[in-house]
Each structure stands twice: as C-alpha cells, then as structure tokens.
Amino acid sequence: MADLKFSDAEPDDQERAVVDALVQQPPVMRQSERVVLGGIRRADQARHLLLPGLHGLNNARGWISPGGLNYLAESLQVPPAEAFGVASFYDLFELEEPVLPGPRHHVCVDASCALSDAAEFAQRLRSDGQYVHEGPCLGQCENAPALFVQARNSEPLDMTATKGDEAKFNTQLANRLLRRFGAVDPGSLGSYRSHGGYQALETALAIGREATLRLITDAGLTGRGGAAFPTGR
Q1: Domain of 68: which CATH number?
Q2: What integer pLDDT is reported at residue 204 of this predicted model?
C-alpha cells in the first residue's frame, strides 16, 4: 500500500497532548519517516475518534491548525483529505487562526434569524469588539436571532439573544444526546440497554400512540430543519 502523503506542517506540544490523550493505541508508527500500517482492523477501530479529535483540537486552541489536523489524521490512519473534509463541513470548527482574542460568537443568519434582524445583531456585537462568525442554523429558530458563544479551553456557553436585546444564558444544559459517549460499548446491545437504551421506546409502547404524541407536543419539541415545525404534529 502506498504511503499516505502529509504536508510539512507540524503540531505543537498542546496539540500532540490532545491527540495522544485521545488515541491510546495509535494505529500507525513511524519508521525512517515512513508511515507503517498497524493493521486494517486497528485503523477501522480508530476512525470513530476523528470527530472527537477535531473537537479536542478546536477547543484547546480555538482553531484547528494544519499541523494539528495532520497529526490527528496520521494517528488515526485517516487520509488528510478526508479529515479536512470533515473539519470543513462543520461550521463550528475554525480552520484559520482567530483574528481577534476571546470567544467566537456564532450568529445564525438562516431564514428565521435573518427575518429577526440577525445581521443587525451581528453588527452590534462587532461594534462591541466581539469576534463574530455568521453561520447556519443553531436550532433556536423560536428564539431568533440565535447566538452561540464558543470559548477556547472551556465548555461552550449556549446563549440565545432575544428581540429585547437581552440574552438568556444557560450553563447547566445536560448533555443528553451524547451522555452515553465513552461509557457504552458501541458493539454491545446489552451495554447500550444497561445504560438506559430503549427506555423511551418502552415508555412510548406502554402509554400508546396518542399519549406519546401528546407528551411530545406538550414538551414543545421541534424539528431542526430550520422551520422548527412541532414534532408532535
């Protein structure tokens, strides 16, 4: 198999530490500046760490440098082009060094927020000296214009700006969607069920269709496609 080609960019010590802490058993090793495969099976097992690794690099330095991206791709045996494709797909990842210090303010400029003066809101933040990025939907259409504050070396702060120029801060949001990450064996159905898997399905089957729809409607759950349609309907 031909060697994978990496650029000359090198990671700094902080980036190496982030990747090394994530990848306990790297699927590759270096010998005479050649990348030697550690086995297709091990490479496949490490590919799922690409997205967590990108999050780690981005959170550590506030952006994903070419050196950090190269080191992560090499450690996971993922082609650099594929790693870059994933990193560039998600708008919350920064692939260029921030031009201003401090947190990055993501302002949604999709339809609902654009109709709620998102552009004017973003300009006010810039006038206050904030680092602003105008991006796609943040899943807060009902509270437009939406804002997400992403700080370096800290947990993101979820902040939604309201039309009254006030802001709602929520630093106690429970991690619901990913709460089983790192605790459940993805190859074991028993492990998933032992950590609460299928409990919601069992509840829905027990209470029936109408009660389930009523529960979803009363909870105010909405879709994230941009229009925030009520899920219960």
Answers
A1: 1.10.10
A2: 93
